[in-house]
Amino acid sequence: MEQFAFKDLTLTLFERCCEQVDFHAGLAMQAYLRSGVDDAKRIADWAKRTGRQVTVRLVKGAYWDYETIHAEEMGWPCPVWSAKHETDACFERMAEVFLDSTPREANEGGVKLALGSHNVRSIAAALEGMERRNLPKEAIELQMLHGMADQLKGAAVDSGLRIREYVPVGEMIPGMAYLVRRLLENTSNESWLRAGFLEDADTDRLLASPHHDNGKGSGDLSNVAPERHKLSPAVEGVGDGRAFFTEPLRDFSRADQRDAFTAGIEQATVPQVANDGTVEDIDKAISAADAYFPTWRDRDPVERANMLVRAADIMRARRDELSGVIIKENGKCWVDADADVCEAIDFMEYYARCAVPLFTRERMGLFIGELDEQWYTPRGVTGVISPWNFPLAICTGMTTAALVTGNTVVVKPAEQTPGIAKIMAEILWDAGVPKEALHFVPGKGETCGAALVRDPRVAVLAFTGSKAVGLDIIKAAGETPEHQAFVKKVVCEMGGKNAVIIDTSADLDEAVLGVRASAFGFQGQKCSAASRVVCVDDGGGVYEEFAKRLVESTRALVVGDPKLPGTDIGPVIDEEAASKCRHFIQRGKDQCTCALEMKVPDGLEAQIGKPYVAPAIFTDVKPEHDVAREEIFGPVLAVLRAKDFDDALRIANDSPYKLTGGVFSRKPAHLERAKREFRVGNLYLNRGITGALVARQPFGGFGMSGVGSKAGGRDYLLQFVEPRASCENTMRRGFAPEL
């Protein structure tokens, strides 16, 4: 039970196995978990209730750093105690629980306690509890590592206590990692062994009770995250007045969050929206937006910002329901649907805080007699053409970026997902955005989209979608009729053919999981998804080992109903997308080696009502093969060979798309070189290449991946405004107020 995320699963699995199979069962449990005492009571009560005798190895916990770091990264409450004395106190409280459940008869259920500690105070506290309960010395077993605290072991043996000495056995590299971890633990500034043997601390300090509050501990980084990270300005009067911090994803390892999410899916209803908007509807919407623009432009920026904050609050209150709508409308699985809603919330909270300072005049310099100022002004009517793959997040991001900077907006959503886009518009209207400022026109791209792009009253076009459509929009926007009063601004995000480099030093455990998630999350239907892996093959077998492990790991993915929590692979968006994927899978079979083509369960497509394409992995792929060149936008992955890191960078860069890329390496020189030479907008090192977070990983590429600044970044709003400046002579007949 090494990771908190798997704790409840581990305990449940342990209980089920013990109930179904008669074997000598044991379990390690950690005292550094804040849930430690409750977990101990759970196992103790279960053991007594079922009549099962089990051994519990009680330890302090080995992954405090990971749990602390991961919790902050996710914005979750930290699951481990923040100070060592709190862990020591929890250890003693858990030992009391287990001692209370020690079986006194051969056929009595309960827990046999084993102490995995070298801390004399912790051991003595448990022994005192044993004596207080009149238990025999055999009721507790001491477990200690070979080569550590030999004097302590000798004293325990002399006292008639049971000792089990253990030693790690296995391969050299994992063994060295284990040794280093033990050395770090035992030489830390809070280690009992260090205090007792190296620092020669006095007895009172070594045996001091950990049950106290000295003002250290119990803190949680999630409580101070906005101030700690300063991801945005903290604007007085906007929201809670604090800086922005990302909305935490659901922690689906927790049963309460799974239950709430399930309920949200069940109650979710996809609005029935006909894509029947006409060119006339677009014209009417643009006319109304154009007429209202001066009013909206001159609205107090703080008022506009707080409308976004209120909309974020509404989404936050409805987030599980909104995830359910996304799951039912476009086929995302749980994690991706939840992330879609969180990103929409983040865009609004972040842009609300970033927009207000743009409209405050900023003085440039301190020249006496001269006042130089700079500020920004809205551009005008903005046309938003949003995609189906992030139907809430991207639609919300483009729409609210335009609104909060004082532009009126006409939204033309993707034809496949108009339902969730309509809900977005309704939420913004409910939050106070006037209907004159935000217009929603669902319709065909060939008619409504084309009319929106070409109308001379539209000042800004924000688009996310395919390269072909994006280039057409850029071309059309460049045609300026005689009566058009401005040059249109185009914010255009297109596609990607993203590569992940695996070098010979890479941690393959991390690389396999990172690539698998990046390639097959949401069925590969992300512009950021990994569709190429470039693995360095120097003859040492890394390519073959990586490919083998990737294939076997991918086999474990579950193709199923996206409404179910255990599903990893859901449907693709429509039959056109499925046909394209199947075409390239066949091309891959013709040109290279199909290492894996998973199967879609019989009857699943009929049950869900959407087409499926299961993951496919191709090996022995050459750079000129179709699966290595073309954007497929599906669960199809090409694994290429490179002779060295130079060659890997060359292959990875050999694409017109420049969106995301990744490197798995334990060589700092390779990571630093990738930052200089891997030509992508978003580079990820030793992690997956999808899942960019607002303000933390501003998202966007260059080349054929698009034009414009990064979404969720500090420069994004500048695309929706025009800069202005003024210079005022403040001298009056030779005098200046400042002098």
TrEMBL record:
<dbReference type="InterPro" id="IPR002872">
    <property type="entry name" value="Proline_DH_dom"/>
</dbReference>
<dbReference type="GO" id="GO:0010133">
    <property type="term" value="P:L-proline catabolic process to L-glutamate"/>
</dbReference>
<dbReference type="InterPro" id="IPR016160">
    <property type="entry name" value="Ald_DH_CS_CYS"/>
</dbReference>
<dbReference type="InterPro" id="IPR016163">
    <property type="entry name" value="Ald_DH_C"/>
</dbReference>
<protein>
    <recommendedName>
        <fullName>L-glutamate gamma-semialdehyde dehydrogenase</fullName>
        <ecNumber>1.2.1.88</ecNumber>
    </recommendedName>
</protein>
<keyword id="KW-0560">Oxidoreductase</keyword>
<dbReference type="InterPro" id="IPR016162">
    <property type="entry name" value="Ald_DH_N"/>
</dbReference>
<keyword id="KW-0520">NAD</keyword>
<dbReference type="Pfam" id="PF01619">
    <property type="entry name" value="Pro_dh"/>
</dbReference>
<feature type="domain" description="Aldehyde dehydrogenase">
    <location>
        <begin position="275"/>
        <end position="723"/>
    </location>
</feature>
<dbReference type="GO" id="GO:0009898">
    <property type="term" value="C:cytoplasmic side of plasma membrane"/>
</dbReference>
<dbReference type="InterPro" id="IPR029041">
    <property type="entry name" value="FAD-linked_oxidoreductase-like"/>
</dbReference>
<comment type="pathway">
    <text>Amino-acid degradation; L-proline degradation into L-glutamate; L-glutamate from L-proline: step 2/2.</text>
</comment>
<dbReference type="InterPro" id="IPR015590">
    <property type="entry name" value="Aldehyde_DH_dom"/>
</dbReference>
<dbReference type="InterPro" id="IPR050485">
    <property type="entry name" value="Proline_metab_enzyme"/>
</dbReference>
<dbReference type="Pfam" id="PF00171">
    <property type="entry name" value="Aldedh"/>
</dbReference>
<feature type="domain" description="Proline dehydrogenase">
    <location>
        <begin position="1"/>
        <end position="194"/>
    </location>
</feature>
<dbReference type="GO" id="GO:0003842">
    <property type="term" value="F:L-glutamate gamma-semialdehyde dehydrogenase activity"/>
</dbReference>
<dbReference type="InterPro" id="IPR016161">
    <property type="entry name" value="Ald_DH/histidinol_DH"/>
</dbReference>
